[in-house]
Amino acid sequence: MKRIFSGIQPTGEIHLGNYVGAIRNWTYLQDEYDCVFCVVDYHAITIEYPVEEMKKRTLDTAIILLACGLSPERSKIFVQSHVPEHTELAWIFNTVTPIGEVERMTQFKDKARQHRANINMGLMDYPVLQAADILLYKAGYVPVGEDQVQHIELCREVARKFNTRFAPIFPEPEELLSMAPRILGVDGQSKMSKSLGNYIGILEEEDVVWEKLRTAVTDVNRVRRKDPGNPEVCNIYTIHRAFSDNAMLIEIDKGCTSAGIGCIDCKKMLFENVKRELTPVREKARELEKNMDYVVDVLEKGADACREIADATMEEVRATLGLYPPR
Ligand code: TYM
Fold this sequence. Notes:
The protein has helices at residues 16-29, 41-44, 54-68, 85-94, 99-103, 106-114, 121-136, 149-165, 206-214, 235-243, 246-257, 263-289, 292-321; strands spanning 3-8, 34-39, 75-79, 141-144, 174-177. α4 (85-94) crosses α7 (121-136), α4 (85-94) packs parallel to α13 (292-321) and α10 packs across α12 (263-289). α8 links the parallel β4 and β5 (174-177). The longest helix is centred in the C-terminal third of the chain and has 30 residues, at 292-321. It is mainly α and 327 residues long. The chain contains 13 helices and 5 strands. A 3-stranded parallel sheet has the order 1-2-3. Strands 4-5 form a two-stranded parallel sheet. It binds ligand 1. Residues 5-9, 17-18, 21-22, 40, 43, 130, 133-134, 142, 144-145, 147-148, 181-183, 191-193 line the site of ligand 1.
């Protein structure tokens, strides 16, 4: 069975982009692959963060993964810092990664712009740690949103460099994109993201979700209700594609392009479908919050299982590097 690895940062608030771009896809893949899913706390510390909130954010993220349907019976779910081999392998990969390759990463450039006061080595090394996450488990596939594709390309490059210089022990993993790999925020301009504040959180209350949807930007050229719209350039239609069935998509396409329906009608339909899918997730998350022993237990068992794999890989890596082993 091929192995899958993917990760998510513990931002504490997981949004619709994370959900349809990645997490929902992870739940489908659990049946076909040997899955490893990680809350990547060491990635999250590369930007300023409230130290006192990190534990809660990490647990909240794990709760969301479980509430969305990741199952500890079928997947290993754990916290990155519980398996220190991730950072150990990242150090080794640093020695085969050309600086030029990490400098040209779009995400690094964006984050360096956003966090001018703290452009630290970790921010630059971020994709190397990501390569270590994936290759520590020799994963063949990495289900992610479109924004991570460049990092997976770098991961392949790191594997190639290591394999050529030392010995061919790592696979070159491929990204797996969901059917909605890039969701824009409610501003209709930039990728939905927590840091830009243009997101809809998957655990947000219904009235908050509706208010955000109601005021979300659609086709900017559709100024009046009687103007026909173009679903292809409308972010609400993109989100519909992730939540609505074909019959509804056809109905909306026809209604929008003929001005038969207005943006608010279209948004109401979307809201109903989002609600239908996310209400059970929210209820499950509330249940899990009351059962923290279970959540902690899942993470502990996940880390135990991952440490075993990580340990074996690191032994192989150290031998490949020709390091002098302890007795
Ligand atoms: P992160 O935490 O930013 O996002 C988690 C997943 O959600 C996807 N995503 C989106 N998909 C569609 N539309 C959006 N607006 C959107 N926003 C986020 C991301 O592509 C991602 O799949 N570097 C990674 C975490 C990571 C990782 C890894 C992933 C660390 N190590 C190893 C894969 C393998 C990140 O910051 O994801």
